[in-house]
Structures are given as structure tokens and as C-alpha cells.
Amino acid sequence: KQTVGAKQQTLELDGERATVRDLAEALPARYPALAERLPTVAFVLGDTIVPPHTVLRDGDTAALLPPVSGG
Question: Do β-strands 42-45 and 62-65 pair in parallel, antiparallel, or remain unpaired?
Fold first, then answer.
């Protein structure tokens, strides 16, 4: 949220079979400040953490889940 300046953004990806990996590769072009953080985040679709090969569907909502620490 702080890195991109908004809680929610819309991003259109090329291709009918765009994946979470495609999304991860497209994000730094639009939000350069995310580039250094992307290797440590998990991608979430709905309530599920998904792997990079997951195919996105039109209208999917993806979220970036930063690492957390406990103590």
C-alpha cells in the first residue's frame, strides 16, 4: 500500500493465459519500488496463497502478502 501509493490498483495483462509469474514481472514496470520487495512476497488469490504458475482469470483479485515475523 505504501509502496504503490494506493490500497488497490487495476492492472491488465497481455495474453489469455497470464499467470501470477506474469503479474510479478509486470509490476516493477509500473511500480519500480516493488522490484526489491517482490522476491520476498507471496501472491494471494482470494484466500489462498498461490504458486507462480497459477493462471489468472479475468476479474481475479490478487494481493501481495509481505513476510511477517513473530516473536
Answer: antiparallel
